[in-house]
Amino acid sequence: MKKVLLLGASGSIGSQTLDIIKKYPEEFELVGFSVGKNIEKAKEIISSFKEVKNVYITSKTNANELKHQYKNIRVFSGKSGLNKLIHQTDFDQCVDALVGFVGLEPAVEVLKKNKILCLANKEALVAGGTLINKLLDEGKGKLYPIDSEHVALAKCLSKCDIKDVKSLIITASGGALRNVEISELSKQTPEDALRHPTWKMGAKITIDCATMMNKGFEIIEAYYLYHFPLNKIRVQMHDESLIHSAVELNDGTLIVDYGKPDMHEPIRWAMFEGKSDYKVYFVKALDEFKDCHFHDYDYKRYPCTEIAKQALLEGASKMIALNAANETAVNRFLNHEIGFLDIAKFVGKKVEKQKLIRQPSLSQIKRIDKNARKVN
Ligand code: NAD
Ligand code: MG
């Protein structure tokens, strides 16, 4: 039985993680969790999971209400609260389903404690990939990604010899605006960009899918997780999100992870540390899957993916700026303060301006992040 700490329990991945914990009561027990602002969700989780001992909620007022209502539960809040939650909870495995840069420091703390980290928060790898890999190399902590493409890649890579691999193929739906004429993209509203054709997710990642910054982030994730250089990581546009990703071998064989788009499976895979059953397909060409449609990747439509690739080629501080500027721009777009195409413009400028530092410490990462968020 593993004791689980869940960060971001009120979100899309967080809620699906709770489903997995409920489904396997012999394997997992929830001992602590965090939510952002959703106090009703916090109360609902506390009443459904009786082993919860520690909770984090952002606001002090909400924390006081929870403390008053649940005398046996420790409640943390405020800036240092997430760290306290991690250090004062007795857990084996942490699912980091926070969104944005706020997920990095908890990921680092979990690895410093030599625990198992199931990481949905891809921004942690984008902004802190070098630091996270250093902690993994030097410590006893373990990392399992929760991203459908990366779980798919892990499954495919487990079925072959790494020396036979020619490239990693990451599939991409193209997001909500994939069929909009490029000349019309500047007029698209947040509501348009939030209508994802194949996945239901939190708002930030849904916008990242529309700009395909998400795919740029996923290339960076693949680089840090599987140690393949950028020229061996390829994006394949695929409409239905049925093929989650694939591995191409030197002899032309493709190893493919195919299944319905549902995040419960990648979450389950990560929580079972890759030890659960799964099936992959060996084919000669992707179009052997008759219900799947494919297109070429169009770099003119998706400048954000190109900016992310460039940042990866240059080094760590560029990726920190990439992530921070993207978070700022996506928030401003969601608040109707800037247009859809301004996201790439803002991010591109911030990345270009950023000085190169290849191995930043956590405090340097925080400083770079703060600077790159500034709107000026
Ligand atoms: P979401 O917006 O639905 O949930 C985010 C969670 O983080 C919420 O619980 C929210 O309260 C919490 N949170 C946000 N800011 C916080 C703060 N400052 N302090 C404390 N808590 C805070 O997001 P999501 O779609 O579940 O995505 C979570 C992560 O997983 C993201 O990094 C995303 O890229 C990644 N991911 C999501 C999916 C998906 O299907 N949703 C798939 C692959 C990867
Ligand atoms: Mg993904």
Element layout with pairings:
Elements: E1 2-7, H1 12-23, E2 28-34, H2 39-48, E3 54-56, H3 60-69, E4 74-76, H4 81-88, E5 93-96, H5 104-112, E6 116-119, H6 122-138, E7 142-145, H7 148-157, E8 165-172, H8 190-193, H9 203-211, H10 213-226, E9 233-238, E10 243-249, E11 254-258, H11 264-271, E12 281-283, E13 294-295, H12 303-314, H13 316-334, H14 342-353, H15 362-373
Parallel strand pairs: 1-2, 1-5, 2-3, 3-4, 5-6, 6-7, 8-9
Antiparallel strand pairs: 8-10, 9-13, 10-11, 11-12
This protein binds nicotinamide-adenine-dinucleotide (NAD) and magnesium ion.
Magnesium ion binds at residues 147-149, 218.
Key words describing this protein structure:
376 residues, alpha/beta, Rossmann fold, six-stranded mixed β-sheet, 13 strands, binds nicotinamide-adenine-dinucleotide, binds magnesium ion
**Secondary-structure element order, N to C:** EHEHEHEHEHEHEHEHHHEEEHEEHHHH
Task: Give the averaged pLDDT, no decimals.
Answer: 97
Runs with pLDDT <50, length 5+? none
Instruction: Please identify the top-level CATH class of the domain at 2-145.
Output: Alpha Beta
Distance between the termini: 51 Å
CATH architecture of the domain at 2-145: 3-Layer(aba) Sandwich
Kindly state the number of beta strands: 13
CATH topology of the domain at 2-145: Rossmann fold
Rg from alpha-carbon coordinates: 20 Å
